[in-house]
Recover the amino acids of this structure.
């Protein structure tokens, strides 16, 4: 039985796809057979972030419509063992995903995979609800900014009332907060909500804090999930988040403004 | 309160503090609405229709509110009758 994880946010552009690629890769690196599914029908992007855009032949909708088998549509990652991608359709609209169709695909994947990561589209409507419906775990991706925090709270409401677990009266979806694009300097200057502020408001356990980082753009330019950039702060922060997801207790890093070294101070470097 | 805090407390809130305050208010408000059962608007309409059979009232002179605490829920119906 696979564990189904949805990466969701409400608000668009907060880092869901970046996170899905990083966490999916991280779980696979830890030996778990993992598939990342792009639920953003019509706006496929996960393939690009994971660097497999030229290998897409069939997609999620083809499988649901039985125009292709799951094995034909799944793309095996070239860099990381145990990692697969199921791309979204580029041409169809969101109505192409039906609940029964999605359930059938997830059931089939469940037989052989350990983790299924669902990269949700933005919004709180049908597409986002489809991505979270079958989830066991939710990674609520949030930026330290008012509209993102508010939308995350609305998504939490949907997880608690409209997920399969909620409808069946099962134990609730496990909720995790992932704060991304965090800028400690601006927090220190009182210009940005702090980790504690966002935790106070959303009141769910903190999975990780991903700093605003140049490494993320570099990674997406190259089509390499940022978690593979082990030198970068964001890569390390995602790795910590994966370890916590797997049950390890680690202290949160990158919350403070990095102290300037002696030479940097003298030379006035950044 | 330290000497420095005294001066700080007179300063206006930072923009992050303002953001947090506004978020706390709106999120609490939206959570309150979220727990209302789906049937509430329809029930409100039906209550109004029943009252209208006997007294002529304005739609907006009726308020229906559901408050819940730990051990019970209270349905409060307020109707302002015409003189
Ligand atoms: N930690 C970070 N530091 C810097 N830039 C980031 C970070 N996380 C994400 N970004 C940038 O933010 C943009 C949006 O990221 P991403 O596509 O992952 O968001 P999304 O939530 O999937 O968007 P959508 O809602 O459109 O699907 C990208 O340009 C990405 O490079
Ligand atoms: Mg995305």
């Amino acid at each position: 039985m696979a564990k189904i994880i949805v990466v969701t946010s409400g608000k668009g552009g907060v880092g869901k796809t970046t996170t899905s690629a990083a966490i999916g890769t991280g779980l696979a690196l830890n030996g778990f057979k993992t598939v990342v599914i792009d639920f953003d029908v019509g706006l496929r992007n996960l393939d690009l972030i994971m660097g497999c855009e030229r290998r897409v032949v069939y997609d999620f909708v083809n499988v649901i419509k039985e125009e292709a088998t799951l094995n034909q549509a799944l793309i095996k990652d070239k860099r990381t063992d145990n990692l697969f991608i199921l791309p979204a359709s580029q041409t169809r609209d969101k109505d192409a995903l039906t609940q029964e169709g999605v359930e059938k695909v997830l059931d089939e994947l469940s037989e052989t995979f350990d983790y299924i990561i669902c990269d949700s589209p933005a919004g709180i409507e049908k597409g986002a609800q489809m991505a979270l419906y079958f989830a066991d775990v939710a990674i609520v991706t949030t930026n330290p900014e008012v509209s993102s925090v508010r939308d995350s709270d609305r998504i939490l409401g949907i997880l608690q009332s409209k997920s399969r677990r909620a409808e069946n009266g099962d134990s609730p979806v496990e909720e995790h907060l992932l704060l991304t694009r965090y800028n400690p300097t601006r927090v220190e200057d009182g210009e940005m909500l702090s980790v504690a502020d966002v935790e106070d408001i959303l009141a769910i356990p903190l999975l990780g804090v991903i700093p605003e980082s140049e490494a993320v753009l570099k990674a997406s330019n190259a089509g390499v999930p940022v978690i593979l950039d082990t030198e970068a702060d964001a890569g390390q922060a995602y790795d910590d988040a994966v370890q916590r997801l797997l049950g390890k207790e680690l202290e949160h890093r990158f919350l403070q403004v990095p102290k300037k070294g002696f030479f940097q101070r003298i030379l006035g470097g950044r | 309160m330290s000497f420095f805090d005294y001066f700080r407390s007179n300063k206006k809130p930072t923009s992050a503090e303002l953001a947090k305050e506004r978020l706390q208010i709106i999120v609490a408000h939206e959570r309150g609405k979220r727990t209302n059962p789906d049937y509430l608007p329809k029930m409100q309409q039906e209550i109004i229709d029943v009252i209208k059979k006997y007294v002529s009232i304005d739609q907006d002179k009726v308020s229906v509110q559901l408050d819940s605490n730990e051990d019970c829920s209270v349905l409060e119906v307020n109707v302002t009758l015409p003189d």
